[in-house]
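quick q for whoever's on today - can somebody do inverse folding on this one?? i tried earlier but teh output was garbage lol. tokens:
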């Protein structure tokens, strides 16, 4: 009987893991303001527990096509944003912000503000890329990462969310100019190389002609 009771208790509990925060939903659908901390074991026989990841949450944006400073559209831009949530702000964010700002992961956990941050990151990426010409974006990958993070932090501060959400880092996974831009650049380089080769050939021919002229002069 004791073993059966223990098994029943364990199956009716939710453990909050490291990097997570929980909120209790009572039987009357009200949400307790006290955040459930990592390591705690919380019964779910009566009511339920919502679990929220709060540490090192990854947000990926792929196949973006922002415009560059020279009005060229990138073929592809992929970024990953890593962000953290303030544990003490979980209740407020879940109960006062629109649920359309959130998303749900494969483990059926609610990712607070994920959709909202997706919009913020997308806007920041477009602004950061627009500072560079198409052929310069790849060489300025680090600068673009720093700028995206900076713009996102400023956007959060403007909405008074900077104490609740922190941007840890931004990584540019892929950045690729339009094929036409690359082809044009290669064509210019090919033409320049051909011009240099022609100048070298002309110079060589001139020197050879001068040499032959010198050798053909009669000796005294």
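ok took a stab at it. sequence:
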């Amino acid at each position: 009987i004791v073993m059966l009771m223990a098994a029943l208790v364990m199956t009716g509990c939710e453990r909050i893991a490291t990097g997570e925060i929980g909120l209790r939903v009572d039987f009357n659908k009200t949400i307790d303001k006290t955040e459930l901390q990592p390591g705690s074991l919380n019964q779910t026989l009566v009511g339920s527990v919502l679990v929220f990841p709060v540490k090192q949450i990854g947000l990926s944006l792929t196949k973006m096509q922002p415009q560059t400073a020279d009005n060229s559209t990138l073929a592809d831009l992929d970024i990953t944003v890593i962000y953290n949530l303030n544990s003490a702000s979980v209740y407020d964010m879940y109960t006062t912000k629109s649920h359309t700002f959130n998303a749900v992961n494969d483990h059926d956990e609610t990712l607070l503000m994920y959709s909202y941050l997706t919009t913020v990151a997308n806007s920041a990426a477009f602004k950061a890329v627009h500072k560079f010409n198409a052929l310069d974006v790849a060489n300025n990958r680090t600068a673009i990462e720093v700028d995206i993070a900076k713009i996102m932090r400023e956007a959060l501060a403007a909405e008074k969310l900077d104490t609740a959400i922190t941007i840890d880092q931004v990584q540019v996974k892929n950045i690729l100019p339009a094929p036409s831009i690359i082809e044009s650049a290669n064509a210019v380089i090919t033409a320049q190389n051909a011009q240099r080769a022609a100048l070298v050939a002309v110079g060589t021919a001139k020197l050879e002609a001068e040499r032959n002229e010198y050798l053909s002069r009669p000796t005294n």
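fwiw Residues 98 and 113 are 9 Å apart (CA to CA). also The two ends are 128 Å apart (CA to CA). so keep that in mind when u check it
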